[in-house]
Amino acid sequence: MKKQLHLQIRQIGNSRGVVIPKAILEQVGLDDSADLVIEGNKLVLSKPKKNPREGWAEDSRAIAEAGEDQLVMGDFMNEADGDWAW
User: Fold this and answer.
1) For residue 13, is it left (φ>0), alpha (ψ between -120 and 50) or beta?
2) Is the dihedral of CA 40, 42, 43, 45 positive or negative?
3) What residues does each domain of the chain span?
4) 28-86 per-position pLDDT tens digit
5) What CA–CA distance (Å, rounded) separates 47 from 1?
6) Which DSSP string corresponds to 59-75?
7) Residue 66 and residue 58: Cα distance in Å, rounded?
8) Among residues 35, 59, 62, 56, which one has the least CA distance to residue 46?
């Protein structure tokens, strides 16, 4: 469902901006930052895209510290790979 809200564009220093009511920010889940996309003559704000690898380093350390970082399948060499030097 589309809701239309009329907002005043205000002078903010050398820039201009709008104040978005708290209830609307909460409704769409925006907090301290947002992604802005220009689509034709529209400005579209959305939740920032999360880095797909965000937190991987911390999670890997926690797994290693818990001793749960063994290979699941073990070494998976082919029989003919025996003469390879690793």
Assistant:
1) left
2) negative
3) 1-72
4) 889 889 999 999 999 999 988 877 788 889 999 999 999 888 777 666 667 776 676 66
5) 18
6) HHHHHHHTT--S-SS--
7) 12
8) 35
CA distance 20 to 18: 6
Question: What CATH number was assigned to the domain covering residues 1-72?
Answer: 2.10.260.10
Q: What is the pairing mode between strands 35-39 and 10-12? A: unpaired
User: Can you list the pairs that 23-28 forms with residues at least 24 positions away whose Cβ atoms lie under 8 Å?
Assistant: none
pLDDT digits (tens, 9 = 90+) for 4-34: 889 999 999 999 999 999 999 999 889 889 9
> What does the pLDDT read at residue 39?
96
Say how far residue 52 (Cα) sits from the centre of its chain.
6
Q: How many CB atoms lie within 10 A of CB 25?
A: 14
Q: What is the pTM of this model?
A: 0.52
